[in-house]
Design a protein that fits this description.
heterodimer; A: 208 residues; B: alpha+beta
């Protein structure tokens, strides 16, 4: 396995409507916060290059619609995901409660090769707000109960922990990706070959 | 009876000739009357193959040198046919000799008979359904075991491919089923398919099954061929399948309303169809097309159409086309597509007069009418073939027009201050800074439109012409958008029909607490944040009102993200109320089902788009399919009408066309965008890349004629003028991507989407049910299909809800009973009904009279799979107050047999405890007989009712009486339902998955209340009944029961000492409820005599029974101490055989 290979990581952000998925993505990619986003319909995505352990990695971050009635439609976007980010709003307990169902739904729809070890990251967003309702401890406990999912408390508005969280996301996704390379039958190998090609041509070709 | 002359070739094959003359033959069907034997069987077979029952007598016409025979009369009886024969001889035969040629004879005879039929039909009063149809309907119900209310729509002759052999027979199409029946040489073939199970319906043509209709269900594929009217059959099948699918989507209960008004419909030339329902369906289809074409309210029913011309003053021409008439509108559409279209609301019609020839022009010299509206515009229709009829018809419709309703206005007065004001178009309040070139362009456009409208008129009844379409394609000027959108979309008609409704809805919606409102609130600032109007409370409040009012108006949709985005754009251009009606029109007419709880419509159109791409851009389709991009783009593009993907000022231009031409525009534009980017897309290697290309392209679309809304500098390169894009879309796909074609493809994909949704619902339900770990997965699978079957049979459909997947399957008591009693070992004995009802109550978490799929699976799991302790606990809980309330202990509502048995059991146990006292229990039994004279078993419906009565009445009563037992002292209003919840939780405790309502906390498991004596006796009686069949077991139960009864009395004492004050409370309550017939404490021998109470409270004896108690722990310990009982309740009962039996039962027999 070459260590300097350019890799594309697909990251899916899930969570209830209004927890700040779009804001987190934009804070991470564009380093800015705006309260002028439209509700996401279907899905949207941004890409960013990051360096993880000396490797240049392109993160392709997919932001999805949160409303319940769109939940089952995510399957189109889940395909070939390397990491799944589950977001909840620390001021809204309901959004925390639905994490379980988002996780289940993702595992069923995306059906990763090894559901037990598929990398998830949980983000408790909006910690800048006063009226916090889900304690860090409670969230932490839940994450531990689910195979020790990494948990971060973030604020997309004040850029708290966003960078750190996405670093972890990239690292865990990369680990998953690297592992996947070992398996030829993994459906994603087409994508990997594609990246090989673009690498051969020109490094910047794949800035998608 | 004379029949329309029909050619037949085989004169004698199946018929015996009774009489013969030169031109006529009277025949008798073989096998009828005289002949028997083989020929009879043969003819019987043929009869079943050809039609249900041909009349046994007929008269043929024939000429000596011709091979061709004509049937001219048929009859069921010999005298009838003789009468016709006689008539022929007397009236027709003499004339026939005067003809020279045989052809002439035949022509004359046919003509004569036809005219007789015609005259007879005039006198014939039109019945709802013809006689033959009624016979067939009868056959249909018998052959397929259909419930009485299943309506046959039509039947067709066809062949069914069973294996490699086609079977000739009849296809019956009814509202819920497609059936096929054939009977050939004693071999019967039947097929019965429910429309709701159909997953694919197609016309195919393969070598194996030439020219056939293919029907695919989950389990099977069927081919039907050799239709006489294949297209008609197929169209009807499509329509029925569609109705079934729409029901699955909407859960509008399966009732199908026949439109009786059709009978009175005056239009002529309605071809006679075998079934009234068929006509009704045809009419519905017509009306549907009509309302879609003219954007009329959906409940509009087409009355009739007429070929005629419309005089268009702007070009001084008569245009041929068709005039459509319905209750509220006169419409016209030109024969040349898009030439001219017109809608006149009858409400506006001031006068209808016959315009006489002369001045109006040469071609319109006959049959012209002039329609004048109250706005002093007139419309001239010419060349009407039957003018009098039309004028008569219009005036009739005018007379029937409902008077303007004033009720809503009254309601408004009562409200007084409403606290909000309806906003004008927000763009008038929040002006964008137009640069002068843009202002010039806008002014120029306004001028163009003003000129255009001065020619074609303004408002609803404007002539919609080709010139108008061109103007629309170029983009409507901002100041006219609101008005024209409302006119084109037809929402202006909705608004006019529902005066005051918006205001009412807003007032109601804003004053009510609704979870939907919270969802809306969250998205208000995420709708069109870039527009100044929505950076301000004025715009936000208006948006809130529109969305909340709509959610209230249409709960099936409620609020779906994307509606906020669309609505905010509407509010920019339209006054608030108009925006509301535009939104309603989009959600209900233009994009039906798009925004419902499963966004079915959008998913269907996703499939349609894929299909269209495949047809028009096959190479690209293959690529995008491989990348999985198709599914990604369509949702956001379609649901937000491009607003969320294109710059706002461009997307509104697409909306101009969308309102003018309907949903097809979205497809056309989408295909064009894909086409333009084809080369780039073909080079993509992964989905993100393709999405990026499309996103960049969409963001780069620009519109020089309007102000860009986004304040941020444009990052994307300019790609195409929106006007060019729209123009190209029309030019390339205008002809091929039509509404009809989309509608047609829609059905196919609706079948697919609905199946997919059902499958995923089923999958999710199974997954959820498996967590209870009681039943095996394959048992659950079978159970779920049994539930589905039961629901569909009851004409209900699983209706997905947001709480949990299994909540979609809601069983009422009848359905629960059917399944539970067929499957559970607890529902076998004499006591079955009572136990079933109690289990139902136990599982009915919210006391609404419905149990979810999980409830049933738990009830079954607990009764046949759980360990003895849990099984007994479940039984105990089912008999615990408040679930089993005092009211239920009164046997009047329940089965008398069960109650008698209970009394038997009671007397038995009493005997065993009291030893020698035999006389008393007998008295007791007698007493109960007197109180409850044996009455016929109450029907399930009354039982159902009694359950709900019990829910309400029982609760209120228990509150006072049982508070002594609960000892919690809470006794609040919600105390009772809390206790019920606790009992239910107790029954289910020990399951791996806790109830959704109870958070996974470390609180101790909920405890069931102790059982009062009466409840306990019921429980014992139930146990007694369950164990009756095995003596050893029975003895064990008797023993345990005896012990428990004694234990209960021991329990009684400390309570008596303690709770005197609460007893007096009970006394007061008991005085209000004087009748507890069976369990009246005074009639209870054990209490009074055998065991004199040593306690000082003996004087308040009546309450003693309620203090007698057995706790769950005591009950379990005593019961489980008995080996046979533990063994019996540990026995794992297999469910699959029962499920199998259930599947193969004969429904009609099981009902009767």
């Amino acid at each position: 396995m070459s260590s300097r290979k350019k890799v594309l990581l697909k990251v899916i952000i899930l969570g209830d409507s209004g927890v700040g998925k779009t804001s987190l993505m934009n804070q991470f990619v564009n380093k800015k916060f705006s309260n002028q986003y439209k509700a996401t319909i279907g899905a949207d995505f941004l890409t960013k290059e990051v360096i993880v352990d000396d490797r240049i990695v392109t993160m392709q971050i997919w932001d999805t619609a949160g409303q319940e009635r769109f939940q089952s439609l995510g399957v189109a976007f889940y395909r070939g995901a390397d990491c799944c980010v589950l977001v909840f709003d620390v001021t809204a307990p309901n959004t925390f409660k639905s994490l379980e169902s988002w996780r289940d739904e993702f595992l069923i729809q995306a059906s990763p090769r090894d559901p037990e070890s598929f990398p998830f990251v949980i983000l408790g967003n909006k910690v800048d707000l006063e009226n916090r309702a889900v304690s860090a401890k409670r969230a932490q406990q839940w994450c531990q109960s689910k195979n020790d999912i990494p948990y971060y408390e973030t604020s997309a508005k004040e850029a708290v922990n966003v960078e750190l969280a996405f670093q972890t996301i990239a690292r865990n996704a990369l680990a998953q990706e690297t592992e996947a390379e070992l398996y030829n039958d993994f459906p994603d190998h087409i994508k990997l070959n594609a990246n090989d090609n673009s690498r051969n041509k020109d490094g910047d070709n794949c800035a998608c | 009876m004379w029949v329309k002359p029909q050619e037949v070739f085989l004169k004698t094959a199946l018929w015996d000739c009774d009489e013969t003359s030169l031109y006529f033959v009277l025949q008798r069907r073989k096998g009828h009357g005289k002949s028997r034997g083989l020929s009879s069987l043969l003819v019987g077979t043929l009869d079943s193959v050809r039609d249900t029952k041909p009349a046994p007598f007929r008269i043929l016409h024939q000429t000596p040198n011709s091979e061709v025979y004509y049937v001219i009369a048929t009859a069921l009886t010999e005298p009838e046919i003789r009468q016709d024969w006689q008539w022929l001889f007397e009236n027709v035969c003499p004339t026939l000799h005067s003809f020279d040629k045989e052809d002439e004879v035949t022509d004359f005879v046919c003509c004569k008979i036809n005219s007789i039929i015609a005259t007879e039909q005039d006198n014939f009063t039109e019945d709802e359904d013809t006689i033959t149809y009624k016979n067939v309907d009868n056959d249909f119900h018998q052959r397929f075991g259909m419930p009485k209310d299943e309506k046959l729509v039509c039947y067709y002759s066809c062949s069914y491919w069973k294996g490699k052999m086609p079977r000739q027979g009849w296809m019956y199409l009814s509202v819920h089923y497609m059936c096929f029946y054939s009977y050939i040489f004693g071999r019967k073939t039947t097929v019965k398919i429910r429309w709701a199970d159909v997953t694919e319906l197609a016309k195919t043509n393969s070598l194996l099954f030439p020219d056939s209709i293919k029907i695919v269900t989950r389990d099977d594929v069927h081919y039907f061929t050799m239709f006489l009217k294949k297209n008609e059959t197929y169209a009807l099948m499509q329509q029925l399948a569609n109705i079934a699918m729409k029901q699955l989507i909407d859960d509008k209960s399966g009732s199908f309303n026949i439109d009786k008004e059709l009978l009175t419909k005056l239009s002529k030339n309605v071809p006679k169809k075998p079934s009234f329902l068929k006509r009704d369906l045809d009419a519905k289809k017509q009306s549907n097309l009509y309302t879609l074409r003219f954007r009329l309210p959906q409940n509009e029913k087409l009355d009739g159409t007429e070929e005629c011309t419309l005089w268009t003053p702007y070009n001084k021409r008569h245009n041929w086309g068709r005039l459509y008439l319905s209750q509220n509108f006169i419409c016209f559409d030109s024969r040349v597509r898009n030439l001219v279209r017109l809608t006149i609301p009858l409400r506006d019609v001031h006068q209808v007069e016959r315009a006489d020839s002369g001045g109006t022009g040469s071609s319109g010299d006959s049959g012209s009418i002039l329609v004048t509206t109250s706005y002093h515009t007139s419309f001239l229709f010419g060349n009407i073939s039957d003018r009098e009829f039309l004028v008569h018809k219009i005036s009739e419709l005018l007379a029937k027009l409902p008077k303007e309703k004033a009720t809503l206005a009254v309601a408004r007065k009562e409200d007084g201050e409403k606290g909000w004001t309806s906003q004008p178009p927000l763009m008038t309040l929040f002006k964008t800074n137009q640069t002068s070139p843009i202002r010039q362009i806008q002014l120029k456009k306004v001028k163009q439109w003003e000129d255009h409208m001065s020619e074609v008129g303004r408002g609803v009844s404007m002539y919609q012409t080709t010139a108008g379409s061109e103007l629309v394609v170029n983009g409507i000027p901002e100041s006219l958008r609101g008005e024209l959108w409302s006119v084109f979309s037809g929402s202006i008609l909705q608004k006019a029909q529902n005066k005051g409704l918006y205001e009412k809805l807003v007032n109601e919606a804003l004053s009510s607490k609704n979870p939907v409102n919270d969802e809306i609130e969250r998205d208000l600032h995420r709708s069109l944040p870039e527009h100044p109007a929505f950076q301000n409370d004025v715009g936000i409040s208006a948006l809130r009102r529109v969305l909340c009012a709509y959610a209230l108006k249409n709960p099936a949709i409620g609020y779906c993200q994307a509606m906020n985005i669309v609505a905010s754009v509407l509010l920019i251009y339209c006054p608030e109320e108009q925006a509301f009606w535009l939104l309603a029109t989009i959600c209900e007419t233009l994009l039906p089902d798009y925004y419902n709880t499963r966004v079915v419509g959008a998913l269907v159109d996703q499939g349609v788009l894929e299909e269209l791409t495949k047809a028009h851009l096959p190479e690209l389709h293959a690529k995008l399919d491989e990348l999985g991009v198709m599914k990604m783009i369509s949702l956001s593009w379609f649901l937000t009408l491009f607003i969320s993907v294109m710059p706002y000022e461009c997307a509104v231009n697409v909306m101009d066309c969308f309102f003018y031409d309907g949903a097809k525009v979205i497809f056309q534009v989408t295909l064009t965008i894909l086409d333009i980017n084809r080369d780039k897309l073909l080079k993509c290697t992964e989905d993100g890349q393709a999405m990026q290309i499309l996103n960049d392209y969409l963001e780069g679309i620009y519109n020089d004629e309007a102000v860009a809304l986004s304040t941020e500098p444009r990052t994307a390169d300019r790609t195409i003028r929106i006007q060019d894009l729209v123009y190209q879309a029309y030019r390339t796909y205008g002809g091929s991507v039509t509404s009809e074609c989309i509608e047609h493809l829609g059905l196919k994909h609706r079948l697919r989407v609905v199946r997919h949704l059902e499958d995923s619902l089923e999958r999710n339900t199974l997954r959820a049910l498996q967590q209870d770990k009681l039943l095996d997965p394959n048992e659950l699978q079978e159970l779920l299909s049994a539930i589905r079957e039961e629901l569909l049979w009851a004409k209900r459909v699983p209706c997905e809800r947001l709480e949990a997947p299994y909540e979609a399957y809601r069983l009422d008591y009848t359905q629960f009973k059917t399944l539970f009693s067929a499957l559970s070992p607890w529902a076998k004995g004499d006591y079955a009904e009572a136990i079933t009802a109690r289990m139902f109550k136990l599982m009915d978490n919210d006391d609404d009279g419905f149990v979810s799929a999980r409830g049933l699976s738990l009830a079954l799991g607990l009764s046949c799979r759980a360990d003895a302790q849990r099984r007994l606990r479940a039984l105990y809980c089912a008999h615990a107050p408040p679930l089993l309330s005092h009211l239920e202990l009164r046997p009047t509502h329940f089965t008398d047999t069960g109650e008698e048995l209970a009394t038997d059991a009671i007397s038995f146990f009493d005997r065993s405890t009291s030893g020698s006292k035999v006389g008393k229990p007998d008295e007791d039994t007698k007493y109960s007989y007197i109180e409850n004279p044996p009455s016929p078993e109450p029907g399930s419906s009354s039982l159902q009712r009694s359950i709900s009565e019990v829910c309400s009445a029982g609760n209120h009563m228990d509150k006072s009486t049982d508070s002594t037992l609960s000892q919690s002292g809470s006794g609040g209003i919600g105390g009772d339902s809390q206790r019920a919840e606790a009992v239910r939780a107790c029954a289910l405790s020990g399951l791996p998955s806790s109830l959704p309502s109870t958070p996974a906390s470390a609180s101790p498991p909920p405890a069931a209340p102790p059982l009062p004596r009466a409840h306990f006796l019921q429980l014992l009686a139930a146990l007694h009944d369950l164990t009756q069949h095995e003596p050893v077991l029975y003895e064990a139960v008797v023993l345990a029961g005896t012990l428990l009864l004694q234990l209960g009395e021991l329990n009684q004492r400390p309570l008596l000492d303690r709770e005197i004050s609460q007893d007096s409370l009970y006394m007061a309550a008991a005085a209000k409820q004087p009748h507890f017939p069976v369990m009246d404490p005074n009639g209870n021998p054990t209490e009074d005599q055998d065991k004199p109470q040593p306690s000082p409270t003996k004087d308040i004896e009546p309450s003693a029974e309620y203090l007698w108690s057995i706790t769950l722990e005591q009950f379990l310990a005593t019961m489980l101490a008995q080996g046979p009982i533990e063994e019996f309740f540990n026995e794992k009962v297999a469910l699959l055989p029962q499920l199998e039996a259930l599947r193969h039962r004969d429904r009609l027999q099981s009902i009767s």
